[in-house]
Amino acid sequence: MAVRTANQRAYMVGEGEFRKAIGETLVIISRHSTSCELCKPFEGKVLIDDVYSGGSQEDGDYMLLSQAMEQGLYHPRCRHGLGTYYPELEEINGYATEDNRLNDYSRNVDKSSENDILKETKRKPETKSKSTADKSPSKDTQKAKTGSDLFSDKAKEKLYRDERILAGNRYETAIVYDADGNVVFKKKGTADEVKFTAEECKKMKGCVVTHNHPNGGGFSGADIYFAKKYKITEMRACEGRGAFVIKPPKKWPAEFTSADAVDKAINSIYANVGSKYRDIAAQNGISPIAYLNDIEIETFEEFSKKYGFEFRWEKK
Fold first, then answer.
1. Are 19 and 52 in contact (CB under 8 A)?
2. Are strands 208-212 and 234-239 parallel, antiparallel or unpaired?
3. Predicted TM-score (pTM) of this structure
4. Disulfide-capable partner of 234 in 64, 81, 147, 256 (CB 3.0 to 4.6 Å)?
5. What is the DSSP letter of 296?
6. Is there a contact between 37 and 274 (Cβ–Cβ < 8 Å)?
7. Is pLDDT of 121 > 60?
8. Torsion-angle region of 181 (φ positive above 0: left; ψ -120 to 50: alpha; else: beta)
C-alpha cells in the first residue's frame, strides 16, 4: 500500500532518457477533462523538452518545457503527460500544430492572462489572499479535540521538529504517532511515495500520520483514501512552508470508494480555485505559479466544507 500514487516525475524522466537515446526533444502535452486554468493553455501544444530530454532553443521555434513549467504546467496535482512529438507523423497522428509556434503563441492565450502566461514580472502582489491567513475556526467547524490536538506540548514540539526535518528531504518519509504522540514507527520511501506492509497498515488505526511531499502540494486522493481505509485520525503533509492537516468526517461520503474517486473530487475544486487565482495573478501582473500554495490551501478548505472534513494549514 502506498501513501501517494504520484509517480509522474519518474515516468517523465524515463521517457526523457528514451528521447535522448533516439535524438528527439520535441514533446506534445496531453489533454484531460479536469485540467485547471494554470495548465489548460498548454494542452495539445508542442514544446522543446529541455528538462528531461536535453533539448535547447536551437531545436526549433517552440516554447521550452522549462518555461511552461515556470508558468504553472506540472503544478502539484497536475495530471498532464508528455508524448514524444514526431513532425514527420503529423498528418497520421492528426497533430494540430499551426498554433504551437512560439511566435504565434500569444494568439491562443486569452487576453486577460497574456502577461502571466508569456512572461514573468518582478512585481509582487501587494496583499496576500485571505485563504493563507491564520484563521480561528468558526463555530460550525469547532469540534471535539482529536489527533495531534490531544498531544502534550512536548509531543507537539517533537511532531513539529520531525516535520521540519522531513520537509528538507528529497524522498518521502512517513512517521506514525499514537494518540499520545509517541512514535509508533517511521518508514522511508522514494521521491514520490511511501509503501507499507499489511502489518504496518494495521498499526495505524487511531494514529496521526505525517509525511513530506518533496515536490510540494497538499494531499493526493490516495492520502485521503488511505486515511479512510486504515481509520487514521489525522493525516498531515508537510513541506518547507508548513503542513497541510486534515481529519476525516464522522461519516465518509458514499462516493469516496477509491483513491481515484477522491482525486476526482479534489481536482474538480482545484480547477475552479485555480481559475480564480489565474485572474488574480493577471490583475497583479505576475505568474499564477506565485499562488500555488494559496490554491492548494483554498482547495482543501473548500473540499473540507463540502465533504465534512476538518482542515487547517499550519504555517511554520
1. yes
2. parallel
3. 0.62
4. 147
5. H
6. yes
7. no
8. left
Which band of pLDDT confidence, cut at 50, 70 and 90, is reported for residue 80? confident
What's the rounded Cα separation, in Å, for the pair 291 and 293? 6
Q: Select from 186, 168, 166, 167 the least CA-distant residue to 176.
A: 186
102-107: list long-range contacts, CB under 8 Å, 24+ apart: 102/61, 102/62, 102/63, 103/61, 105/63
- Cell, residue 167: 520537509
* DSSP state letters, 113-175: GHHHHH---SPPPSS--GGGS--PPPTTT-----GGGGS-HHHHHHHHHHHHHHTT-SS-EEE
Show me where the domains of the chain are located.
8-115, 130-315
- Which amino acid makes up residue 277? Y
**Distance from C-alpha of 154 to C-alpha of 152, rounded to nearest angstrom:** 5
How confident is the model over 238-250, as pLDDT tens digits? 988 899 999 999 9
Task: Give me the phi and psi of 239, to 5 degrees please.
Answer: -150, -175
Q: Which residue type does 170 have?
A: R
Amino acid at 98: E
- The residue written with cell numbers 536551437 in the block is 58
CB 194 within 8 A of CB 174: yes
Q: Are 4 and 222 in contact (CB under 8 A)?
A: yes
- Residue predicted with more confidence, 131 or 191: 191
